[in-house]
Design a protein that fits this description.
Blueprint: E1 3-8, H1 12-27, E2 31-32, E3 41-46, H2 51-63, H3 65-70, E4 74-79, H4 80-85, H5 87-92, E5 98-100, H6 108-118, E6 121-123, E7 144-148, E8 150-151, H7 162-166, E9 170-171, H8 174-186, E10 191-195, H9 204-207, H10 212-221, E11 226-230, H11 239-247, E12 254-256, H12 264-270, H13 276-289, E13 294-301, H14 308-321, E14 325-330, H15 348-371, E15 377-385, E16 393-396, E17 402-405, H16 413-416, E18 420-428, E19 432-437
Parallel strand pairs: 1-2, 1-3, 3-4, 4-5, 5-6, 7-10, 10-11, 12-13, 13-14, 17-19
Antiparallel strand pairs: 8-9, 15-16, 15-18, 16-17, 18-19
Helix pairs in contact: 10-11, 14-15
Bound molecules: 5'-deoxyadenosine and iron/sulfur cluster (SF4).
């Protein structure tokens, strides 16, 4: 075993877990490779939130068999599908050597060694162990660190498989999180993203009441230039957290606040525990406190029993909330979740037609918000050369929007990565902005 390749499916928590798996393997003396063909160890970090992600992963996993026919390669499957399917994964894909669960990440090096000498292994714990504190990380972006503040979820959204594969919510002690942030800052990280399925309830299990606003302040004081966080459940977003968003300059004025549906009837069936008016009132409070905040959301179409009227309520809420971006999903039935037994399946063509209408409206909303930035000067963090046009730089605003612009004369993209520049926004499109360095 000398080289490894990790393929990540799904959410930011998985991207973070992949960086930790990479850190552990580098510590074992392995070297990461870009091309799967060159890897002695291939790790799939998987997602089961929607069927589509799982199907894609299963297809790619099946095609790895060819690699194994050619030479000795170890294949490990971890993350949410590993947790859910366990030994069944081996039955379906006999060429897999290691299956590990969401709580078994730190065992990856020893599981690989064991598979190398004694054949396939499965390690999936159901425990409710405290989240691992700091593990080595090999960061994809040197200037950015993901920091998990809690793992698992105590909510019971009726469509969602996450609580069953990630377990109950367990927060990390505040000091532990702040220490990890300080270490990342000492390593040169300038932006951190705090992660949890519901960051707003952070601390409820450890301290008997949520302490997210306090954590945000403590993390900001540890020195990163930018602090982001995701995801916020609307029912738990406190006025204190909104105040920190408004007052703490290091906390980015960006909020991801999944609405899921604009219909109170559907929200109730989803088990979201807020209704349409609660959400609208919350969004008003957020805009009142932070008028220029970038607001993003998740929306699902085709939940069991969704009527045309329910869907029109969703379109209406999108119109009212002035979202900067919305991630739109078609409902995907997940075995073992309560929604599967609700019946009232919405026909595929109806769902698709609703989905297309929703996406059109989201695009209008995103463009309107981007156009409002034309003429403003934004403090942007450079990520590297633009993929569309290598002569341009790609950077992100505080609101997490992509901006393309020409580098300052005589500076290469490489030396600007991870630095901040002032850019005047000149034109806006739906998903990105163009600007010019303020001279
Ligand atoms: N089907 C479709 N979308 C889902 N999500 C979660 N579970 C499902 C499902 N079964 C969406 C929600 C969530 C986002 C991460 O994924 O919108 O906020
Ligand atoms: Fe799933 Fe709801 Fe928990 Fe989010 S809050 S992870 S949607 S159960």
């Amino acid at each position: 075993m000398e080289t490894f390749h990790i393929r990540t499916f799904g959410c930011q928590m998985n991207r973070h877990d992949s960086e930790r798996m990479a850190g552990l393997l580098v510590e074992e003396g392995l070297t990461p490779v870009r091309d799967v063909q060159d890897a002695d160890v291939v790790v799939f970090n998987t997602c089961c939130v929607r069927e589509h992600a799982e199907d894609r992963m299963n297809g790619q996993l099946a095609s790895l068999k060819v690699l194994k026919d050619d030479r000795v390669v170890l294949i490990a499957v971890g993350g949410c599908v590993g947790q859910k399917d366990r030994g069944r994964l081996l039955a379906r894909h006999p060429h897999v050597d290691v299956v590990f669960g969401t709580q078994n990440l730190a065992e990856l090096p020893s599981l690989l060694r064991s598979a190398e000498t004694s054949g396939s292994v499965v390690s999936v714990s159901d425990g409710t162990a405290a989240p691992a504190s700091e593990l080595p990380s090999r960061r994809d972006r040197s200037w950015h660190a993901w920091i998990a503040i809690a793992v698992g979820c105590d909510n019971r959204c009726t469509y969602c498989i996450v609580p069953s594969v990630r377990g109950p919510e367990r927060s990390r002690p505040l000091e532990d999180v702040v220490d990890e942030v300080s270490h990342a800052v000492a390593d040169g990280v300038v932006e951190i993203t705090l992660l949890g399925q519901n960051v707003n309830s952070y601390g409820r299990d450890l301290y008997s009441h949520p302490r997210f606003a306090e954590l945000l302040e403590a993390v900001s004081a540890a020195g990163p230039q930018r602090v982001r966080f995701t995801t916020s459940h609307p029912k738990d977003l406190s006025d204190e957290t909104i105040r920190v968003l408004a007052d703490e300059p290091r906390v980015c004025r960006w909020l991801h606040l999944p609405v899921q549906s604009g219909s109170s009837r559907v929200l109730e069936r989803m088990g979201r525990t807020y209704d349409r008016d609660d959400y609208l009132a919350l969004v008003d409070r957020v805009y009142d406190a932070v008028p220029d905040i970038a607001l993003t959301t998740d929306i699902m179409v085709g939940f069991p029993g969704e009527t045309e009227e329910d869907f029109e309520d969703t379109l209406d809420i999108v119109g009212r909330c002035r979202f900067d971006q919305a991630f739109t999903f078609i409902y995907s039935p997940r075995e073992g979740t309560p929604a599967v037994d609700m019946g009232a399946h919405v026909p595929r063509d109806v769902v698709q037609e609703r989905f297309d209408r929703l996406v059109d409206l989201v695009k209008v909303s995103a463009l309107t918000k981007n156009e409002a930035l034309v003429g403003t000067v934004q403090d942007v963090l450079v990520e590297g050369p633009s993929k569309r046009d290598g002569t341009l730089l790609l950077a992100r605003t505080e609101g997490n929007k992509i901006v393309h612009f020409l580098p300052p004369a005589g500076r290469t993209p490489e030396e600007l990565v991870g630095t901040f520049l002032d850019v005047r926004i000149e034109t806006a499109s739906t998903w990105f902005l163009r600007g010019r360095i303020r001279g």
